[in-house]
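By way of example, what follows is a protein record of this kind.
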Amino acid sequence: TVLLKKQVDVPYYDSFLLHDASFPMDDVAFERDRRIVDVVDGTFAQQPSSRDVLSFFWPLPFAAARFTMIQETDWKAFADLGAPQLRRALGDLKIDPSDIVEVRLTRWGHAMPIAAPNAIGTGTAELVRRPIAEKLWFVNQDNWLLPAVETCLQEAETWSAEILKRL
C-alpha cells in the first residue's frame, strides 16, 4: 500500500500490470515469476481527494506460497523483489517519488468472505454488494459471500445496465 500526498492524475479504479505483455500461465511459471500484478486506487470513489492510497496486489498462486513469508524476516525478500516493481508502476502512473508519504507491506492482503447461516436473509449480502455513492460497484465473486466465478458473472449481468447508464 502506498500513501501519496496528492491524488493520482490518471483516473482509474483498477489497473492490471502486464508490463512486458507476457504472463505466466501455469503454477511452475507463477512460482518463478514473482510479480505484482494489480494496483487499485483507494480513493477512486471520493474524487477529488487531497491524497491518494494505492494498493498493490501480489498473488502467490502456488502451493508453497504462504510458506515463503512465514518467518519474521521473510518480508525483506519480498520488499527487495517488490521495490523495483513498485517504482516502475509508480513511474507508469507519472507519480513522482517525492509524492510518496509512506509505503506499507502487508503479509496477508485479501480478505476472504465466508458465508454464514442467514447472511442472505438478514440482508448482509445486499449490504456488501450495494454501490458506493452510486459510482463504485463491486461486481465480483465475493458479493454473495460465496467466492465463485458464477457469482461474478451474475453480478455483471445484474449491474451492467445500471453502470452503462452512467457512462
Q: What stands out?
A: The longest strand covers residues 52-57.
